[in-house]
Amino acid sequence: MEKLCISESDCTKKQLFFVSPATNGLGVKTYSITDPVVLMKIAEKCMDVFYRESKLSVYMDNHDISKHEELENFFWKNPFNHVEFKRIK
After folding, report:
1. Which regions of the chain are under pLDDT 50?
2. CA angle (62, 65, 66) in 5-degree steps
3. How many Cβ atoms are within 10 Å of 58's Cβ, its own excluded?
């Protein structure tokens, strides 16, 4: 597993992970994280929230570019991976 950050403030500065409100739940976006083990751990945390909170869906988009690169591009690049933990009813 790759070492992404040396500290919490380092991770904040690198802008690797964002959580925001989404339709009926939470939206999670990762940037520049491509290690499958790290992404699996994030997905497991999303799944934990999904099962703990009975009314929330969780949507996770994983980008192989940085947040800075995304903001610089006129046309946004689609994530390389999209995971949904979606409430049906």
Report:
1. 1
2. 100
3. 25
